[in-house]
Amino acid sequence: MTISSDPKQVTQICFDRINIPDQHKLSVARENGAYEFLPTVLKEFDSAKIINEVKTSGIRGRGGAGFPTGLKWSFVPRNTGKPTYLLCNADEGEPGTFKDRDIMRFDPHLLIEGMIMAGFALGVRDAYIYIRGEFLHEANVLNAAIKEAYDANLLGENILGTDYSMNLTVHRGAGAYVCGEETALIESLEGKPGRPRFKPPFPAVEGFYRCPTVVNNVETLATVPAILKFGGEWHASIGIPNNTGCKIFSVSGHVNKPGNYEVPMGTSLKTLIEDYCGGLQHGTVPKVIIPGGSSTPWLTAEHYDTPLTYDDLMKAGSFLGSGAIIVMDETADLVAVTRRLAHFYAHESCGQCTPCREGTGWLERVMKRVEHGKGRGDDVKVLKEASEHMAGRTICALAEGAAAPVLSLLKFFPEDVKGRLAESAE
Amino acid sequence: MSADTVRFSDERLAEIAELVKRYPGPQSALMPVLYMAQEDFGYISMPAQEMIADLLGIHLMRVREVVTFYTMFKEQPSGKYLLEVCTNAGCMLNGAYELVDHMCDSLGIKLGETTPDGMFTIAEVECAGACGGAPVVQVNNIYHEKATPETMDELISKCRAEGGEA
Ligand SMILES: NC(=O)C1=CN([C@@H]2O[C@H](COP(=O)(O)OP(=O)(O)OC[C@H]3O[C@@H](n4cnc5c(N)ncnc54)[C@H](O)[C@@H]3O)[C@@H](O)[C@H]2O)C=CC1
Ligand SMILES: Cc1cc2nc3c(=O)[nH]c(=O)nc-3n(C[C@H](O)[C@H](O)[C@H](O)COP(=O)(O)O)c2cc1C
Ligand code: SF4
Ligand code: FES
């Protein structure tokens, strides 16, 4: 790795080796530092030390909710007599998100190494990567990398001659967004439809086959090797307190150079879009910025200078979420985009909560008629009421995410909706 | 197909026996086994579902529930080339609907339909997780990023040439 031990010099962690040709091959990965520190961890660290370093690092879950990873690991009960499982969430379904894919296809050994370290800390014997079904290529790359790792005794029995043994299996989803929600993911991995469970109990206590289970996002796990190598303090000194480390942002929509960019936390939205993404396709200031995936509330031009941190985006009225930034310039038809997102959530609702099942259907139907100039006089009220009824009354956060685009449209651009309604009245 | 003609090969059965060992319970192997069935038989027919239920020792209802819940499991055969166009936000903002219209025109079918020769099925799908390459089209699960009407026309001709008479 070329990551600097001086936190001030660090600009990338997970993507450090991303551009190296053939990095997915074990021999190349090893030349570039993969698994270099693993023997030290397995031989000289113990569970308490690892969990402590991860806590000190301040890393928060990169899957979207931002829950402190070290804290989550410390909630796993020990000596229950049951196995503990580690599940990597590679479902990556939130519209706008495409970062985990690059880690998996270009540097799979980084993820595998992170999982071995996490598994060792948690006393895990069987670990799984749950990857969205569409990522067939990525699943194949991972399987090839895992095979190489087994052959090199980096996985399987007595890893590198130590007492620690761990199996790792790739499990493909099959096209259901809701399976990214961790309890739906667990149901799916048990061979069932992916319907979320009530939380609590959290998976840390009762998860896969009702055993203690840690679910972590790809990017979270891929950060673990650097945290252990350079130390929790090192990671805590990158970024901003309470928002430490680097973060991969997936930028899409109306920018000239869409793509994944890893930057230290606290970089501003404007810097990311102008310096990294080559600015907007049309105009100079975005009309809408969805900062954390389609489920997060919209921001507008006035928020363009916001630093990219969990805290600052929350202050601005949204969330950092999965770090998926969808940018829309003045040419975007916001009613059409909102209708498309409403369709997505209606299609993906698992249907077990009435407010979500009915609400997402309503939002889609009403947005559709508004888009097609067939709206009715009280449609704004209908949309508002339907959205407000969905939040906080359901088993999982999908319903809230479904309401976010509609509520944002009505909040910032009521005239766009009213304009369409006026058209229909003519 | 009837129940006795839908059978996994011996290699597949050996593979499945190994697979089951990787999970705490046999039902966890259901999704991977359904993928195998889809790969081997083209789609997952009722007889195939019955055979899989027997094989894993689970109730047919459990298999049905899973097959119908997940969009990537197909109970009907689709065209030899399944063209799946993402029309979600990132792709929509970069011309996905115009692309769909163009492809439908070129193929002479509507979204969700299969060409009469059984060569192409075109479908609209949700975010493919590759929005940096919008618009994204998956062809039998291979990603084509930054798709344009021209590259899609080319791809369709290439499939026609490769696929020959369906
Ligand atoms: N990456 C993607 O493709 C997507 C990401 N998301 C994100 O997912 C987020 C919501 O995720 P949820 O899992 O519903 O959030 P959550 O807040 O319920 O949980 C976050 C994590 O912390 C753990 N946790 C929280 N409290 C705990 C406790 N007391 N004990 C033990 N563990 C605890 C949970 O088990 C989970 O792993 C949204 O903010 C959204 O941004 C949503 C859709 C897709
Ligand atoms: C509808 C829904 C979909 C989700 N999809 C994903 C996903 O694709 N990937 C992911 O890592 N987390 C996803 N999450 C969040 C997970 O439930 C969970 O918080 C996360 O995997 C925990 O890992 P982390 O702490 O490392 O972020 C989703 C949550 C919801 C409510
Ligand atoms: S909120 Fe929606 S997706 Fe989540 S459990 Fe309820 S019905 Fe299913
Ligand atoms: S919106 Fe099309 S790949 Fe994400």
TrEMBL record, chain A:
PROSITE patterns: COMPLEX1_51K_1, COMPLEX1_51K_2. SMART domains: NADH_4Fe-4S. Keywords: 4Fe-4S, Flavoprotein, FMN, Iron, Iron-sulfur, Metal-binding, NAD, Oxidoreductase, Quinone, Translocase. Pfam families: Complex1_51K (PF01512), NADH_4Fe-4S (PF10589), SLBB_2 (PF22461). GO terms for biological process: cellular respiration. Signal peptide: none annotated. Its EC number is 7.1.1.-. It catalyses: a quinone + NADH + 5 H(+)(in) = a quinol + NAD(+) + 4 H(+)(out). GO terms for molecular function: 4 iron, 4 sulfur cluster binding; FMN binding; metal ion binding; NAD binding; NADH dehydrogenase (ubiquinone) activity; NADH dehydrogenase activity; quinone binding. The keyword 4Fe-4S applies. Its cofactor is [4Fe-4S] cluster; FMN. Residues 335-380 form the NADH-ubiquinone oxidoreductase 51kDa subunit iron-sulphur binding domain. NCBIfam families: nuoF_fam, PRK13596.1. NDH-1 shuttles electrons from NADH, via FMN and iron-sulfur (Fe-S) centers, to quinones in the respiratory chain. Belongs to the complex I 51 kDa subunit family. This is NADH-quinone oxidoreductase subunit F. It comes from Mariprofundus ferrinatatus.
TrEMBL record, chain B:
Binds 1 [2Fe-2S] cluster. GO terms for molecular function: 2 iron, 2 sulfur cluster binding; metal ion binding; NADH dehydrogenase activity. Its EC number is 1.6.5.3, 1.6.99.3. Its cofactor is [2Fe-2S] cluster. Keywords: 2Fe-2S, Iron, Iron-sulfur, Metal-binding, Oxidoreductase. Signal peptide: none annotated. Pfam families: 2Fe-2S_thioredx. SUPFAM superfamilies: Thioredoxin-like (SSF52833). [2Fe-2S] cluster binds at residues 86, 91, 127, 131. It catalyses: a quinone + NADH + 5 H(+)(in) = a quinol + NAD(+) + 4 H(+)(out). Belongs to the complex I 24 kDa subunit family. This is NADH dehydrogenase subunit E. It comes from Mariprofundus ferrinatatus.
